[in-house]
Write a structure and sequence with these properties.
- The chain is an alpha/beta fold.
- It has five helices and seven strands.
- It has one domain: 3-Layer(aba) Sandwich (Rossmann fold).
- Helices cover 33% and strands 21% of the residues.
- The longest helix has 17 residues.
- The structure holds guanosine-5'-diphosphate and magnesium ion.
- Guanosine-5'-diphosphate (GDP) binds next to helix 1.
């Protein structure tokens, strides 16, 4: 995919502010610090479009990026950061669920998981929503560079099985670029599927 323009269209803390003009949307979700910003930057070949941070858990907004003027990348707030007060956590849940539940322009969710970690309770909650609202998703195991080839393949298979064999995970690394082309291929194919 040739990226000719990337524009931060809107940061939303309230569902009433979500952009109205319909464009196909690919959303990105995952726990805080999983490598979501790094993955988005890698896909868009931008060094620091989306802030990569050493202090996770800050983003409380849903950010809409307009790509090539034709579709959107939607950066959902990371979940599960321990040091966040319960009230804030509830607000995040509401915002993410509000987006997933009836966003007609949503094509697919790129669901980012750390290859070294098992699913957390919040990962399972997201998975339950995706299924409950019939949202198609692409599971991604990121930070694959931290493992040997053989261990990567094992972790990928374990994740595939724990998702009930619903979807084939993509191995990814923002550090090495592993998986960038296969992930774009999955994203493009999702966007070309009739709604
Ligand atoms: N080794 C390795 N580190 C990564 C990768 N992706 C992200 N990181 C690191 O993980 C930390 C969190 O990344 P970030 O993209 O900010 O995660 P976010 O909170 O999910 O947006 C940063 O220190 C990144 O440099 C990856 O593919 N490989
Ligand atoms: Mg981030």
């Amino acid at each position: 995919m040739k990226i000719t323009s990337v524009e931060l269209e809107k940061r939303c803390r309230d569902p009433r502010d979500f952009p109205r003009f319909p464009l196909p949307e690919i959303a990105f979700a995952g726990r805080s610090n999983v490598g979501k910003s790094s993955l988005i930057n890698t896909l868009l070949t931008r060094k620091r479009l989306v802030g990569v941070s050493a202090t996770p858990g800050k983003t409380r907004s849903i950010d809409f990026f307009r790509i090539n003027g034709r579709f959107r990348f939607v950066d959902l707030p990371g979940y599960g950061y321990a040091k966040v007060p319960q009230g804030v956590r509830e607000a995040w849940k509401e915002l993410i669920e509000a987006y997933l539940i009836d966003r007609e322009t949503l094509v697919s969710v790129v669901w980012i998981l750390d290859i070294r970690r098992d699913l957390t309770e919040l990962d399972r909650m997201l998975h339950d929503w995706l299924r409950a609202y019939s949202v198609s998703y692409i599971p991604v195991c990121t930070k694959a560079d931290k493992m040997s080839q053989r261990d990567r393949a094992k972790r990928k298979e374990a994740l595939r099985r724990s998702l009930g064999g619903e979807a084939e995970p993509v191995l990814f690394s923002a550090r090495t670029g592993l998986g960038k082309d296969p992930l774009w291929k999955r994203v493009r194919s999702a966007m070309s599927r009739p709604a």
